[in-house]
Design brief:
The chain has 14 helices and twelve strands. It is an alpha/beta fold. The strands form three sheets. An eight-stranded parallel beta barrel has the order 1-2-3-4-7-8-9-12, surrounded by five helices. The chain has a two-stranded antiparallel sheet with strand order 5-6. Strands 10-11 form a two-stranded parallel ribbon. The protein is globular, with a radius of gyration of 20 Å.
Length: 396
């Protein structure tokens, strides 16, 4: 089979899961607005605030959340990956000090779920990772989950993380070149037409083979970026692309800029003869009334963990990420790429506006996950169905 770039050495490519009409990915893509849950696998979840809440990083808590989301019809769940020193980002909350590995955690979640897609975030350029490892690990997780598993492939923007692994951070665009070779090799191994011998710029294999074949051609692949190099990589290899807001966390400021941002991702895929779905991460704060929602929103910010926010902002500034560039420090107390706040009717209207920009789905974070996820399911999902943004999902 031909590769997407004729300047690259020939490698086999498997069929994509979105081309299988019965795949879990195709079922998720059939929803007008995909719903995802960003799991709080780390201390403090996504919000740097000391306002009391029940959100917890433990596996049992995240398993309950995932089962709760699955019962509500959510399409995907996955977690963040970061590598941090002792104390995490510090502050009163010791933000993200405890951090469950998202790849191992989501593989384990496959055993306690039956429908929801599960993505494990992986820094493939850290340490002695080789495409043979990932190809076998993901094929195994694919079989455990019956085709519901995938990987969110990240290259790492922080300057201190590679040093933990005894290496230095490569230039921004060069990391995507290396990641592309990595995933092309994985694709060839998943295609599995024969033993693979390959000599590339970064990796070499001799008579390599991985079996069994993934259930729907290959596992689901995702990536996150805000740069042209990242968009091109996503357009070639990803099924789901996570973007950040190009204009900060305020929805009213982001809406005018999002259409061009989303279109750039989708055009990158179209230039390679592919289609992708674009997802963004809002923190949703929904209460019975608008006044209650904004009072809660303000209380979260009033309890901002300033020291942890300063540490997080400094780390991000030292990296070379092209995402989160316009987000306010105070907004980190709430977290998320966007803040969607209001009554159930307000939230539904804001999600309609967000979908109109070309965004295909949302990967939601909450402040107090368990009760807020339950209320979102009770109050907002029926309105999304009425608005044509969600198709009803059969009970488990």
């Amino acid at each position: 089979m031909p590769t997407t770039n004729h300047d690259e050495p020939f490698l086999w490519t498997p069929e994509e899961p979105q081309h299988h009409p019965d795949s879990p990915l195709s079922r998720a893509f059939a929803q007008p607005l995909m719903l995802g849950l960003f799991l709080p696998l780390q201390t403090g979840g996504w919000s740097q605030s000391t306002l009391p809440r029940s959100t917890d990083w433990t596996f049992d808590y995240n398993a309950r959340l995932t089962q709760q989301a699955e019962a509500l019809g959510f399409d995907v769940a996955f977690g963040l990956s970061q590598w941090l020193p002792k104390g995490g980002f510090g502050g009163e909350t010791r933000y993200r000090e405890n951090f469950l590995d998202p790849f191992v955690s989501t593989t384990a979640l496959a055993a306690v779920t039956s429908r929801i897609l599960l993505l494990g975030t992986i820094h493939i350029l850290y340490g002695p990772w080789h495409p043979m490892h990932l190809a076998r690990f993901l094929a195994t997780a694919d079989h455990i989950s019956q085709g519901r598993f995938g990987a969110n492939i990240v290259t790492g923007y922080a300057d201190n993380e590679p040093r933990m692994f005894g290496s230095t951070r490569a230039a921004h665009d060069k990391r995507y070149v290396q990641s592309a070779e990595f995933i092309r090799i994985c694709n060839a191994l998943w295609a599995g037409h024969d033993n693979l011998t390959y000599q590339g710029e970064f990796y070499s294999l001799e008579q390599a083979y991985v079996s069994p074949r993934p259930r729907y051609g290959r596992p689901v692949l995702a990536s996150a970026s805000g740069s042209p190099a990242g968009f091109d990589y996503a357009g070639r290899y990803s099924d789901i692309v996570f973007i950040s807001s190009p204009a900060g966390e305020k929805l009213a400021e982001a809406l005018p800029k999002l259409p061009a941002h989303v279109a750039a991702v989708k055009q990158a895929a179209a230039s390679h003869g592919r289609q992708v779905r674009v997802i963004i991460n809002p923190t949703i704060i929904v209460r019975p009334t608008r006044e209650e929602a904004f009072a809660y929103y303000q209380a979260i910010m009033d309890h901002a963990d300033i020291e942890a926010i300063r540490s997080f902002s400094a780390r991000h500034a030292a990296g070379d990420s092209q995402s989160w560039l316009e987000h306010s420090a105070r907004g980190r107390a709430v977290g998320g790429h966007l803040h969607i706040v209001g009554s159930p009717e307000d939230v539904t209207e804001q999600l309609k506006q967000l979908h109109a920009t070309g965004v295909d789905g949302i990967q939601i974070t909450f402040y107090d996950y368990e009760p807020e996820l339950a209320y979102f399911g009770e109050s907002v999902i029926p309105l999304l169905e009425q608005a044509g943004l969600r198709r009803p999902v059969l009970p488990l």
